[in-house]
Amino acid sequence: MIDKPLRVVLAEDSVILRDGMVELLGARGCTVVATAGTAPELIAAVAEHRPDVAVVDIRMPPTHTDEGIRAAVEIRAGTPEVGILVFSQHVETAWAARLLADGAAGIGYLLKERVARTSEFVDALHRVAEGGTALDPDVVTRLMRGGQRTRVGTLTPREREVLELMAQGHSNRSIAARLVVSERAVEKHVAAVFAKFDLPATDADNRRVKAVLTYLAESR
Protein backbone atom coordinates (compact mmCIF):
# COMPACT_ATOMS: atom_id res chain seq x y z
CA MET A 1 0.00 0.00 0.00
CA ILE A 2 1.37 3.39 -1.04
CA ASP A 3 1.31 6.02 1.69
CA LYS A 4 -0.71 9.10 0.89
CA PRO A 5 1.42 12.23 0.45
CA LEU A 6 1.42 14.63 3.38
CA ARG A 7 -0.94 17.54 2.64
CA VAL A 8 0.50 20.88 3.70
CA VAL A 9 -0.67 24.49 3.85
CA LEU A 10 2.34 26.79 3.85
CA ALA A 11 2.18 30.31 5.32
CA GLU A 12 5.23 32.47 4.58
CA ASP A 13 5.18 36.11 3.51
CA SER A 14 8.52 35.95 1.66
CA VAL A 15 7.66 34.87 -1.89
CA ILE A 16 11.16 33.58 -2.63
CA LEU A 17 11.32 31.49 0.54
CA ARG A 18 7.77 30.28 0.06
CA ASP A 19 8.39 29.13 -3.52
CA GLY A 20 11.61 27.45 -2.49
CA MET A 21 9.88 25.56 0.31
CA VAL A 22 7.13 24.41 -2.07
CA GLU A 23 9.76 22.89 -4.36
CA LEU A 24 11.67 21.29 -1.50
CA LEU A 25 8.57 19.77 0.06
CA GLY A 26 7.35 18.52 -3.30
CA ALA A 27 10.70 16.81 -3.89
CA ARG A 28 10.31 15.10 -0.50
CA GLY A 29 6.91 13.63 -1.32
CA CYS A 30 4.70 16.27 0.31
CA THR A 31 1.82 18.04 -1.42
CA VAL A 32 1.49 21.76 -0.73
CA VAL A 33 -2.26 22.20 -1.25
CA ALA A 34 -2.18 25.97 -0.66
CA THR A 35 0.16 28.82 0.22
CA ALA A 36 -0.58 31.99 2.17
CA GLY A 37 1.16 35.32 2.54
CA THR A 38 -1.06 36.72 5.30
CA ALA A 39 -2.77 35.37 8.41
CA PRO A 40 -6.32 35.67 6.97
CA GLU A 41 -5.19 33.77 3.87
CA LEU A 42 -3.75 31.06 6.12
CA ILE A 43 -6.97 30.67 8.12
CA ALA A 44 -9.03 30.54 4.92
CA ALA A 45 -6.70 27.99 3.30
CA VAL A 46 -6.85 25.66 6.32
CA ALA A 47 -10.64 25.93 6.46
CA GLU A 48 -10.92 25.11 2.76
CA HIS A 49 -8.34 22.34 2.41
CA ARG A 50 -8.18 20.78 5.92
CA PRO A 51 -4.52 19.79 5.47
CA ASP A 52 -2.57 17.30 7.57
CA VAL A 53 -0.37 20.12 8.82
CA ALA A 54 -0.02 23.89 8.47
CA VAL A 55 3.44 25.48 8.42
CA VAL A 56 3.21 28.93 9.98
CA ASP A 57 5.61 31.85 10.18
CA ILE A 58 5.07 34.04 13.24
CA ARG A 59 5.51 37.52 11.80
CA MET A 60 3.28 38.23 8.83
CA PRO A 61 1.67 41.31 7.22
CA PRO A 62 0.47 43.88 7.93
CA THR A 63 2.36 44.60 11.17
CA HIS A 64 4.90 41.75 11.02
CA THR A 65 4.60 41.13 14.76
CA ASP A 66 2.57 38.09 15.81
CA GLU A 67 -0.17 37.67 13.18
CA GLY A 68 1.01 34.20 12.16
CA ILE A 69 1.05 32.61 15.59
CA ARG A 70 -2.24 34.29 16.49
CA ALA A 71 -3.68 32.57 13.43
CA ALA A 72 -2.11 29.28 14.56
CA VAL A 73 -3.85 29.56 17.93
CA GLU A 74 -7.16 30.23 16.14
CA ILE A 75 -6.65 27.22 13.86
CA ARG A 76 -5.75 25.03 16.83
CA ALA A 77 -8.97 26.01 18.58
CA GLY A 78 -11.21 25.54 15.54
CA THR A 79 -9.60 22.55 13.82
CA PRO A 80 -7.52 20.67 16.40
CA GLU A 81 -7.08 17.75 14.00
CA VAL A 82 -4.81 19.92 11.82
CA GLY A 83 -1.17 19.77 12.89
CA ILE A 84 0.61 23.09 13.43
CA LEU A 85 4.31 23.58 12.78
CA VAL A 86 5.50 27.08 13.65
CA PHE A 87 8.65 27.80 11.61
CA SER A 88 10.21 31.13 12.45
CA GLN A 89 13.31 33.12 13.37
CA HIS A 90 11.59 34.30 16.54
CA VAL A 91 10.30 32.88 19.82
CA GLU A 92 7.02 34.42 20.99
CA THR A 93 6.80 32.90 24.46
CA ALA A 94 3.34 34.11 25.44
CA TRP A 95 1.68 32.96 22.24
CA ALA A 96 3.65 29.70 22.18
CA ALA A 97 2.34 28.96 25.67
CA ARG A 98 -1.21 29.58 24.46
CA LEU A 99 -0.65 27.31 21.47
CA LEU A 100 0.54 24.54 23.81
CA ALA A 101 -2.04 25.21 26.53
CA ASP A 102 -4.13 22.13 25.72
CA GLY A 103 -1.13 19.88 25.13
CA ALA A 104 1.70 19.55 22.64
CA ALA A 105 0.19 16.73 20.54
CA GLY A 106 0.24 17.79 16.90
CA ILE A 107 2.31 20.89 17.59
CA GLY A 108 5.78 21.84 16.39
CA TYR A 109 7.88 24.96 16.88
CA LEU A 110 11.20 25.08 15.04
CA LEU A 111 13.66 27.93 14.59
CA LYS A 112 14.75 28.50 11.00
CA GLU A 113 18.43 29.02 11.74
CA ARG A 114 18.64 25.73 13.69
CA VAL A 115 17.20 23.40 11.03
CA ALA A 116 20.25 22.13 9.17
CA ARG A 117 18.68 19.61 6.77
CA THR A 118 15.50 19.41 4.71
CA SER A 119 15.02 15.81 5.87
CA GLU A 120 14.96 17.03 9.48
CA PHE A 121 12.19 19.50 8.65
CA VAL A 122 10.15 16.93 6.71
CA ASP A 123 10.52 14.40 9.53
CA ALA A 124 9.16 17.03 11.94
CA LEU A 125 6.22 17.68 9.60
CA HIS A 126 5.30 13.99 9.56
CA ARG A 127 5.67 13.71 13.33
CA VAL A 128 3.35 16.67 13.92
CA ALA A 129 0.82 15.45 11.36
CA GLU A 130 0.70 12.11 13.19
CA GLY A 131 -0.03 13.79 16.52
CA GLY A 132 3.53 13.95 17.81
CA THR A 133 5.60 16.96 18.80
CA ALA A 134 8.61 18.77 17.34
CA LEU A 135 9.83 21.47 19.71
CA ASP A 136 13.17 23.25 19.45
CA PRO A 137 15.03 23.02 22.79
CA ASP A 138 15.53 26.79 22.83
CA VAL A 139 11.77 27.32 22.62
CA VAL A 140 11.23 24.82 25.43
CA THR A 141 13.86 26.45 27.63
CA ARG A 142 12.16 29.83 27.38
CA LEU A 143 8.79 28.27 28.17
CA MET A 144 10.26 26.46 31.17
CA ARG A 145 12.30 29.39 32.52
CA GLY A 146 12.78 29.21 36.23
CA GLY A 147 12.01 25.48 36.46
CA GLN A 148 14.12 22.80 38.09
CA ARG A 149 16.98 21.54 35.97
CA THR A 150 18.16 18.39 37.77
CA ARG A 151 15.31 15.90 37.43
CA VAL A 152 16.63 14.16 34.31
CA GLY A 153 19.76 13.28 36.30
CA THR A 154 17.65 11.09 38.63
CA LEU A 155 16.62 8.75 35.79
CA THR A 156 18.16 5.38 35.10
CA PRO A 157 19.80 4.94 31.65
CA ARG A 158 16.77 2.97 30.42
CA GLU A 159 14.29 5.54 31.76
CA ARG A 160 16.23 8.30 30.03
CA GLU A 161 16.28 6.30 26.80
CA VAL A 162 12.51 5.89 26.98
CA LEU A 163 12.04 9.59 27.71
CA GLU A 164 14.26 10.54 24.79
CA LEU A 165 12.09 8.47 22.45
CA MET A 166 8.98 10.08 23.96
CA ALA A 167 10.49 13.47 23.13
CA GLN A 168 10.87 12.32 19.53
CA GLY A 169 7.12 11.72 19.40
CA HIS A 170 7.08 7.92 19.73
CA SER A 171 4.16 6.09 21.36
CA ASN A 172 4.70 3.40 24.00
CA ARG A 173 4.16 0.75 21.34
CA SER A 174 6.73 2.32 19.04
CA ILE A 175 9.23 2.66 21.92
CA ALA A 176 8.75 -1.00 22.81
CA ALA A 177 9.47 -2.03 19.22
CA ARG A 178 12.60 0.10 19.03
CA LEU A 179 13.97 -1.14 22.34
CA VAL A 180 12.85 -4.73 21.75
CA VAL A 181 10.99 -4.90 25.06
CA SER A 182 7.35 -5.40 25.99
CA GLU A 183 4.91 -2.51 25.93
CA ARG A 184 4.25 -3.26 29.61
CA ALA A 185 7.93 -2.69 30.38
CA VAL A 186 7.78 0.66 28.63
CA GLU A 187 4.71 1.61 30.65
CA LYS A 188 6.63 0.87 33.87
CA HIS A 189 9.53 3.07 32.77
CA VAL A 190 7.16 5.88 31.80
CA ALA A 191 5.43 5.62 35.19
CA ALA A 192 8.84 5.85 36.89
CA VAL A 193 9.66 9.00 34.91
CA PHE A 194 6.36 10.58 35.98
CA ALA A 195 7.07 9.71 39.61
CA LYS A 196 10.60 11.12 39.56
CA PHE A 197 9.38 14.30 37.85
CA ASP A 198 6.59 14.64 40.45
CA LEU A 199 3.84 14.52 37.84
CA PRO A 200 0.73 13.03 39.47
CA ALA A 201 -2.21 11.92 37.34
CA THR A 202 -4.78 14.60 36.52
CA ASP A 203 -8.07 14.66 34.66
CA ALA A 204 -6.35 16.20 31.64
CA ASP A 205 -3.38 13.84 32.13
CA ASN A 206 -0.83 15.92 30.24
CA ARG A 207 2.06 14.38 32.16
CA ARG A 208 3.66 13.04 28.99
CA VAL A 209 3.91 16.53 27.54
CA LYS A 210 5.32 17.97 30.77
CA ALA A 211 7.89 15.18 31.04
CA VAL A 212 9.06 15.82 27.48
CA LEU A 213 9.27 19.57 28.08
CA THR A 214 11.35 18.97 31.19
CA TYR A 215 13.66 16.62 29.32
CA LEU A 216 14.21 19.09 26.47
CA ALA A 217 14.80 21.99 28.83
CA GLU A 218 17.35 20.11 30.94
CA SER A 219 19.17 18.47 28.04
CA ARG A 220 20.34 21.60 26.21
Automatic annotation (TrEMBL):
Organism expressing this protein natively: Streptomyces kaniharaensis
Protein name: Response regulator transcription factor
Boundaries of every HTH luxR-type domain copy: 148-219
Pfam families membership: GerE, Response_reg
Keyword terms of this UniProt record: DNA-binding, Phosphoprotein, Transcription, Transcription regulation
GO aspect biological process, one term: regulation of DNA-templated transcription
PROSITE patterns: HTH_LUXR_2, RESPONSE_REGULATORY
Record-level Gene Ontology MF annotations: DNA binding
InterPro entries per record: CheY-like_superfamily, NreC/VraR/RcsB-like_REC, Sig_transdc_resp-reg_receiver, Tscrpt_reg_LuxR_C, WalR-like, WH-like_DNA-bd_sf
